[in-house]
């Protein structure tokens, strides 16, 4: 399987079929959607679409004698924005697009337009350090220990005759939900950045 060397410092060696298929999938206008945060360092939509159109035209040229493949390409273009790039592999392999220098160059142009962050999210591995492990454990402990402390506090308050013990029970029930909401907000914010480490276990 041919590997495409990086064109820029923020790129990594990528299998040619993955590079081409992902460019065909992610460069479609329907795939751009509201993903501006993902493409924070990319070009405007029109530039991405233009680069994608040039890439697609070259693939169409390779498939010009296969009406079935051209029809398949049209159907692929209409897939939802989050469709997996692997859906394009059959077509790309059938016409040998991943071995065509013009197609590979066109795919690199699409990724230049999409930007380094979108490329990183697609092809680069995220950082995975001990810090991320500790953060994952901290979130878990925060979700578990908060309710435990609240319940123990409620038991003690009830035994001491305090009438507000039930507030601690409510706090123990609400606390895990609050932690989950905060965790999801933090996770979703960082998962849009290719360089951000996500908490893990």
Tally the beta strands. 2
Helix content: 55-70%
Helix-strand makeup class? mainly alpha
Report the average pLDDT across residues: 91
Q: How do the helices and strands follow one another from N- to C-terminus?
A: EEHHHHHHHHH
> What's the Cα radius of gyration?
24 Å
The number of distinct structural domains comes to: 2
Query: Uncertain regions: pLDDT < 50 for 5+ in a row?
Result: none
Keywords: Membrane, Transmembrane, Transmembrane helix
Transmembrane segments: 138-157, 163-183
Give a verbal description of the structure.
The chain crosses the membrane at residues 138-157, 163-183. Keywords: Membrane, Transmembrane, Transmembrane helix. With 201 residues, the protein is an all-alpha fold. The chain has two domains: 3-123, no CATH class; 130-191. It has helices at 16-26, 29-32, 45-62, 67-77, 89-95, 101-114, 116-123, 130-159, 165-191, and strands at 3-4, 14-15. The protein has a two-stranded antiparallel ribbon with strand order 1-2. It is elongated and about 85 Å long. The model has no long low-confidence stretch (mean pLDDT 91).
Question: Helix and strand layout, with pairings?
Answer:
Layout lengths: L2 E2 L9 E2 H11 L2 H4 L12 H18 L4 H11 L11 H7 L5 H14 L1 H8 L6 H30 L5 H27 L10
Antiparallel strand pairs: 1-2
Helix pairs in contact: 1-6, 3-6, 8-9
Give descriptors for this structure.
201 residues; mainly alpha; 2 domains; 9 helices; 65% helix
Entry summary:
The protein has 201 residues and is mainly α.
């Amino acid at each position: 399987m041919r590997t495409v060397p990086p064109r820029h410092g923020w790129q990594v060696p990528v299998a040619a079929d993955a590079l081409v298929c992902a460019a065909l999938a992610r460069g479609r206008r329907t795939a751009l959607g509201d993903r501006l945060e993902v493409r924070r360092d990319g070009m405007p939509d029109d530039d991405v679409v233009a680069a994608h159109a040039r890439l697609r035209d070259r693939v169409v040229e390779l498939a010009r004698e296969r009406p079935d493949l051209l029809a398949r390409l049209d159907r692929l273009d209409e897939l939802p924005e989050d469709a997996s790039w692997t859906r394009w592999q059959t077509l790309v392999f059938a016409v040998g697009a991943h071995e065509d220098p013009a197609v590979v160059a066109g795919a690199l142009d699409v990724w230049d337009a999409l930007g380094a962050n979108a490329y990183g999210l697609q092809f680069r591995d995220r950082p995975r350090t001990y810090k991320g492990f500790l953060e994952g454990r901290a979130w878990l402990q925060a979700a578990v220990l908060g309710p435990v402390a609240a319940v123990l506090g409620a038991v003690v308050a009830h035994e001491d005759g305090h009438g507000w013990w039930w507030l601690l029970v409510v706090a123990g029930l609400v606390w895990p939900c609050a932690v989950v909401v905060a965790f999801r907000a933090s996770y979703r914010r960082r998962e849009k950045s290719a360089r951000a480490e996500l908490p893990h276990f």
